[in-house]
Every structure is written in C-alpha cells, then in structure tokens.
Amino acid sequence: MEEKKAYRKKMEAKLKEWSAKINELEAKAERVKAEVKIEYQKKIKDLTERKENIAKKLDELKRSSDEAWQGVKTGVDKAMSELKNAYENIKTKFKS
C-alpha cells in the first residue's frame, strides 16, 4: 500500500530531524552547570528513549498488514506528539 510506505518514509525523516534536535540539546547540556547538567541529561535520555520507541513502532509498521497498519499509525502519531511535547518542555525549561 503506497499510503503506508509514504507515511513510514515521512516518519523516518522526522526521526532523523529529532536525532539532530536531541544532539543539539546534548551539546547544550555540556555547557551548563554541573547540578543542572544531570537533570538535563535525564531529560535528554527520556527524549532518546521516546525516539527509539517510535523507531520500533515504525519497524512494526513495516511488518504490519495493509489492514492493520492504521492502528500502528495511530500509535506512531501519538508517540511523535508526545516526543514533540517533551522536547518543547525541555527547551522551555532550559532556555539559554
């Protein structure tokens, strides 16, 4: 199904963007005070875990049947939204 394939490619591209954003946060974490750095690193670890979870869901999407992929898509969309919200919270909290 072409729609499924296009969706998967779009989400894989978004994951690459998220990797870059997380790398940017990691670079900023290196420049902050020690007490803040620990909390920053925990938040970055959470983002990384969320991103990895999405990657697993995309793998599941690849293996899903044409009939079942919409359910997996819903899970990916929700996880992507949660990743975005977590990222925005971190950016706001650690504004530099």
Describe what this molecule looks like in 3D.
The protein has 96 residues and is mostly helical. The chain has one domain. Helix content is 86%, strand content 0%. It has three helices and no strands. The mean pLDDT is 90.
Strand-helix topology:
Elements: H1 2-29, H2 34-63, H3 69-93
Largest pleated sheet: none
Proportion in β-strands: under 5%
Distance between the termini: 45 Å
SS field, number of helical segments: 3
| Whole-angstrom Rg | 15 Å
Provide the helix percentage: over 70%
Q: What overall form do the CA principal axes indicate? A: elongated
- Number of structurally distinct domains: 1
Summary?
The protein is mainly α. 86% of the residues lie in helices and 0% in strands. Helix 1 (2-29) runs antiparallel to helix 2 (34-63), helix 1 runs parallel beside helix 3 and helix 2 (34-63) packs antiparallel against helix 3 (69-93).
Features:
3 helices, single chain, mainly alpha, 96 residues
